[in-house]
Amino acid sequence: MQNPNAPHIPSPGSLIHNSHSSITRAFPYDTRPPSPPTVDIPASRCMGRISVTITPSPRNLDPSLLDLNTDYSSIIAHGGAPQEAVDQASSWEYSSRRSAQKIVDPSLWLGPLSVVRDKAWMEKEKVTMVVVKDGGVPAFPTLGPPAKKVCEELGVQVEAVGISGLQELIREFPRLNEKIVRHLVSVHKRSSGTQQGKVLVCCETGNERSAAVVVAYLVEVWGCDLLHALRFVLYRRFCVAWDDDTRRYLKNYEDILMAKRMRWQDQEANQRDAELATDETRTFKLKRQLAAVGFLSEDDDSDSNQDADMSTADSDSSEEALRELQRQAREYQHKTRGGRNHRNFAPFVERIPLGRRNNNDGTGGGS
């Protein structure tokens, strides 16, 4: 008879059967490699006013473009004022995809290639540069004869981008961003500030590759994070469409820029430390030279640890070298003592206290 208090031990066959029956397959099995993570743009509501604001950051500009740092706030970032884009999900019309939208007011536009052939619109908006996808040769094959003629008549600069895929496009981002910012600065300086450069970035539809170029511009030049840049461009031109590969490449480009910025910051910190150490070494050497010629008093040199074997000045030192040391000493004292007036150095002059001075008649005394 089986003991009711004994523990139940299932047979091996029943254990295997129960383990299989307790597993529910959620998705079909697949042998392909796992997909990389996607870059999701947060969805917005169709009701209410939804907006996103971007603010320029000059610290994110490439240090190799140091000549543009002075022009960043006034010309490239248009005074450094933040810009706001309002969600147009409820007010967007299908016909708007055939026109160009202003992304950065007033210098950067995004639209289809058809707007370049509209001479009236190009002349009214005063476009000065067109960035367009180039298939190779001959020159301007993507523009076509009508658009090419409009650009020639209006004197619009054309920057053709020869790419065949996303890998080539990500390599073109730094060059295109530099082209755009230098064009804005050149137009402003050439016209003495009376004309604003305007760049139109376009492709066949204005929704894919050209939109990726505009996002890369906001990430690199304006210092925006990728999600803010994607949402900003989407709110300005609601018909843009980035597939998973395009967003993934944009994320990789943002990671590259973040790594570069960290390297720039480390280089700046190391340079500041090196300059500080150089200044301290120069000050210490100056103190030793002044102490060697007997110019620096003990009070002024109390914070310097002089070596026991410090070399003395040569007896035949020239008078010009001594005057130079004295000049450097006065500058040092003015710098270290906050610019306060101190008595000038007068060597070999012994000042007798007023009470011990002799009168002209030989008698001592005084007031």
UniProtKB/TrEMBL annotation:
Residue ranges occupied by any Tyrosine specific protein phosphatases domain in the UniProt entry: 171-237
GO-annotated molecular function: catalytic activity, acting on a protein; F-box domain binding
Swiss-Prot/TrEMBL GO biological process terms: negative regulation of SCF-dependent proteasomal ubiquitin-dependent catabolic process; regulation of ERK1 and ERK2 cascade
Cited PROSITE patterns: TYR_PHOSPHATASE_2 (PS50056)
Listed Basic and acidic residues bias regions: 320-334
Region Disordered, annotated ranges: 298-367
Name this protein carries in UniProt: Protein-tyrosine phosphatase-like protein
Organism of this sequence: Pseudoneurospora amorphoporcata
